[in-house]
């Protein structure tokens, strides 16, 4: 049974979503503040975390919690689930390592579909290594079975969403991928701002290892591509 941590300070919402997710067969632990959630995560990591941004008296407590959880694990799927619908918060959340950013006006079936998609992608990392699942181009190496990435033999810690977006670009070097194609390949349903934020974060992670990294190109009005030539 998959374990979901739901961090939401509104008791009614927390109880309603806990009940709905439990009916879907998930084991749900609810927390109403950052400190309680951090204590629980330190003891045992959830299989997926759903986090509100504002927690009790902490206006950005969810952002801090996301960073804490990302320091514990680079692969646990994290969804921000919040009433704050603006580009600044969306970009901030994704830069901190969240896999998805949803607003509370989303339908329950849509939320469940996003959760299921993240779980399907997360399960791939537990498959055994398979040489046929390896992609090597330039100084990049990707293992699509275990969702491992390295650049110049240095590991690159990518979230689940980041990995599949990068994989979509790299499997056909030089080919332009539209935002819609990136969403389809990584099994996401998000807006253009979210795609842009993920691409920026991927670039930042590579640039932190190699200041001359420039292989992800933006073609304005078209999409993105992985530049194959050194």
What does this protein look like?
The chain has 230 residues and is of the alpha/beta class. The chain has two domains: 3-125, Rossmann fold (3-Layer(aba) Sandwich), CATH 3.40.50.2300; 129-226, Arc Repressor Mutant, subunit A (Orthogonal Bundle), CATH 1.10.10.10. 42% of the residues lie in helices and 20% in strands. The chain contains eight helices and eleven strands. The chain has helices spanning 11-23, 34-43, 61-72, 87-95, 108-123, 160-170, 179-185, 192-209; strands at 3-7, 27-31, 48-51, 78-82, 100-103, 134-137, 140-143, 148-151, 154-155, 216-219, 223-226. The strands form three sheets. It has a five-stranded parallel β-sheet with strand order 2-1-3-4-5, with helices on both faces. The chain has a four-stranded antiparallel β-sheet with strand order 6-7-8-9, covered by helices on one side. The longest helix is centred in the last third of the chain and has 18 residues, at 192-209. The model has no long low-confidence stretch (mean pLDDT 87).
